[in-house]
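anyone seen this seq b4? input:
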Amino acid sequence: AYLKWANLDLEQKNPAAALPKYRMALKLNPKMKQVWYSMGACHYELKSPLDSARFYLGKALEMDPNMEQARKLLEIMGIEEQIRGSRR
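predicted toks r here
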């Protein structure tokens, strides 16, 4: 149930509301790679410290090294950081 509600929040562009529900879903089943990915995506969307996003995306990739969506989001984050760094 938590996962379903969290996904709805994320679809409605409300990552702040989705995060606690994803946390509960992980407590119930920490082996759900999609939830680890979604936690990373929420942190990215919230522009919270990107280390949090990297942590969750990394956990998803530990479970599935071929998870393309996690790789792509990490790549996007790296490109954005390079752009910000070049503006300084």
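The mean pLDDT is 93. The two ends are 45 Å apart (CA to CA). kinda curious what u guys think
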